[in-house]
Amino acid sequence: MASQAVSSGPTPAAPGGGVQLPPTAEQLQTAFDHGIWYLLSLWPALHVACQNGWGGPDSNEKKDWFAGAVSDLFAQRPETDFEDLVVFLLQVVQDEFDLNVEDDTEEEVARSILVLKKRLFEDGDVSALRELEQRWKNRGQMKTDVQVEDREIEGDEDEWNGFEDEDVDMQDAVPNLASQPKKEKPQPEVDDDGFTKVVGRRNR
């Protein structure tokens, strides 16, 4: 994907008195790939699917591929907007993880991916990635209940959170792989107790 020019402004001094250069297009793309992986890893519904192997024995590897597929989506279709991304996320989790998400958390994931994209490629703000990495490292401190249809379990899963101001090092990038076709978004379903359901089906 051809990255956009980073914003101009005062260039911070690097340690030792040198001038710190703005991030290169390659560094920004790598940061975007990393950030997508963190955002998918922090998605409670997808975490439950991977933890329970709903995508098969290679569910975690599929999550890595998923992150690459999202990155490729923007590379191949730079005009991808919020609605396109939401449908794409739902289609992949349905096809690859046998998961029907009905709590609208896919919208938070899509919104955060677009915020990450803007901060990196328009603002040149690599701290966006560091915030996500810190959130991922702190995931064990966060709790949320995930309702799974016909299974009556409550998962101590990762709570969805957006960006916060933290500063840590980058992790390894996930691979870039081909994206999938899109499907229509299913409608949410609320049970008698008021829970919005996350429907998980066993692997085909």
From TrEMBL:
- Classify the source by domain of life: Eukaryota
Q: Which family does it belong to?
A: Belongs to the TSR2 family.
GO biological process terms, alphabetically, are: rRNA processing
**What would be one Pfam family of this protein?**
WGG
Q: Which UniProt keywords apply?
A: rRNA processing
What is this protein called in UniProt? Pre-rRNA-processing protein TSR2-domain-containing protein
Q: Establish whether keyword Cell membrane is in the entry.
A: no
